[in-house]
Amino acid sequence: MIEIRELTKRYRRVAAIEDVTFGAAPGRVTGFLGLNGSGKTTTMRILLALARADSGAALINGRHYLKLRRPQREIGAVLEQGISHPGLTGRGHLTTQALLCGASRRRVDDLLEYVGLAGAATTRTGDYSLGMRQRLAVATALLGEPPVLVLDEPANGLDPSGMAWLRDLLREHAGRGGTVLISSHLLAELEQLVDDVVIIAAGRVRLQTSLRELEDAQTQRIRVRGGDHQLLRQAYAQAGAFVETDGRALLVEGLTAEDAGEIALRARVPLYELVSERPNLEQIFLSLAGAR
Amino acid sequence: MIGLLRSELYRTFALRSGWVSIGVTVALGLTFGIFDTAFWSLFAGLGSFGLAVMLTAQHYQHRTALLLFLGRPRRLLVLAAQCLSAAAVATVIAVVSGLGVINWGDLAEYRATLAAVPLVAVFGVATASVLRRPLWLLGAAAGWVIFVEGLFGRLESPLPFSAFLRAAAGDTHLLWVFAAWTGAALLGAVIAIRRDLTGD
Questions:
Q1: pLDDT top residue among A56 and B3
Q2: pLDDT digits (tens, 9 = 90+) for B101-155
Q3: % of chain A surpassing 90 pLDDT
Q4: A254 neighbors A240 (Cβ within 8 angstroms)
Q5: For residue B170, what pLDDT is reported?
Q6: How many angstroms separate the CA atoms of B123 and A90, rounded?
Q7: pLDDT of residue A219
Q8: Which of B67, B69, B193, B196 to mutate to test the interface with A (most CBs of A within 10 A)?
Q9: Are B73 and A71 in contact (CB < 8 Å)?
Q10: Which of A138, A195, B20, B125 is deepest in the core (most CB within 10 A)?
């Protein structure tokens, strides 16, 4: 469980984040969305005690990071683009981290196998690709078998198969009751992964909701292409709908697809296309983040 | 604390740059010790300082300080472990590389150097925790030693590196002076290590 309460951080007079409040629940994957410079990384760093807040609280399972007795047993983090000393091998890197968190050498080898780096265990991480470094970063986060995972842009550098691997891993983690907080600008990828969404813009949380509620709350629009657009337009308008056209089809708001079909049938206008359209996560995000 | 120490020592010896630097320092120290005890003292001290700076500052240079602080969020404990680890490595370097000095029977300077070398390693860790950039720090230290302490102070002033050299030669008073410099650097490190780790 992650709780962020009224978190504020200023760099001189500029507020990086202001009154940021949200939560990430166990058993769910929470997507933390924001444009570059919106305050995502600052919030995550404060949560992990890498930066100090001016006010507010960031809690993991009810406690501040500094109060965790064995932090890597409670929370694992993937930050930046796969941090490691380039002179250490993959196994050497994980071993230094295992000694820190009290994990066994066996766990190191198991994780190298799990993230698909067993064949590169003795290669220096400086020679790793970006995707390999990200896999190593995920292995580092999993060393202490923590119930809470925090990932800052983990999809960077992962190819489609790597992304599918990460998605399965995180879904499996949440499925076992774990908490996952993930930030990413790859919204199409995130849409397939997250249960809950937190949108931050200009240092303030604009929205926290479940992905399903967010989608349901969006105005549904129907795209209709038929035999007589003028007649259809009149019929839909009489039924109280708002109707526009893009030149090729009618765009109808305020009716369900079923209603639109029945009205067309009563008006005796043949339909060639009837599609229910909802804005995707990227469109919702951009409208809320004020980027358009 | 034990886990931290083990992790730091493991990293020191797992890095090729770490064990090669230690090996070269020991080999050169052994060679210099055969010819001149004072030169061995100087080399053991500066070698230990350089190693401590490199190993500490590399955590910031390669961003692994993030992982270190995630594993051990109490940063003063991290600083203490880094000091202990650097002091232990420096002592081993001095003990082994000074065997040539023992051969000549110069035990007093050998003992004095062994007392001062852990302090110079801690001084290196502390200054690296403040500046966080190894090449800047080593460049600044070289410039400081050559121009300020060497040309102006003739290596006889109570400034850090001069004090170390005189302490390593057996001057107990200057050992305390150097300990005070190390304490001052540690005070700076205690404040500096709490700084936020900003983005890359």
A1: A56
A2: 877 777 888 888 898 899 999 999 999 998 888 888 888 888 888 888 888 878 7
A3: 39
A4: yes
A5: 83
A6: 31
A7: 66
A8: B67
A9: yes
A10: B125
- Across A28-163, the runs of DSSP E, i.e. the strands, are 29-33, 55-60, 63-64, 75-78, 148-152
> Span B150-166, mean pLDDT?
84
SS3 per residue for A27-43: CCEEEEECCCCCCHHHH
Q: Is the pLDDT of residue A44 over 70?
A: yes
Span B169-180, pLDDT tens digits: 888 898 899 899
A73: nearest Cα among A128, A123, A147, A16: A147
| Secondary structure in 3-state letters for B96-164 | HHCHHHHHCCCHHHHHHHHHHHHHHHHHHHHHHHHHCCHHHHHHHHHHHHHHHHHHHCCCCCCCHHHHH
Q: How far is B78 from chain A (nearest CA, A)?
A: 11
Contact A80 B198 (CB under 8 A): no
- Cα three-residue angle B70-B71-B76, rounded to 5 degrees: 85
| Cβ atoms < 10 Å from Cβ of B93 | 24
Kindly list the strands in the beta sheet with A250-253, ordered across the sheet, starting from the edge strand earlier in the chain.
A242-245, A250-253, A221-226, A271-277
The two tokens of residue A136 are 């190593």
Please state, in angstroms and rounded to a whole number, the distance separating the CA atoms of residues B91 and A152.
41
CB atoms within 10 A of CB B135: 11
- Chain A residues near any Cβ of chain B (below 8 Å): 41, 45, 48-52, 65-66, 68, 71-72, 77, 79-81, 83-89, 92, 95-97, 99-102, 140
Distance of alpha carbon A134 from its chain centroid, rounded?
A: 16
Containing H/E element for A196?
A: strand A196-201
Grade residue A292 by pLDDT with cuts at 50, 70 and 90. very low
Confidence of residue B200 (pLDDT cuts 50, 70, 90): very low
Q: What is the pTM of this model?
A: 0.79
In whole angstroms, how far apart are CA B90 and each of A99, A250, B9, B17?
22, 79, 12, 16
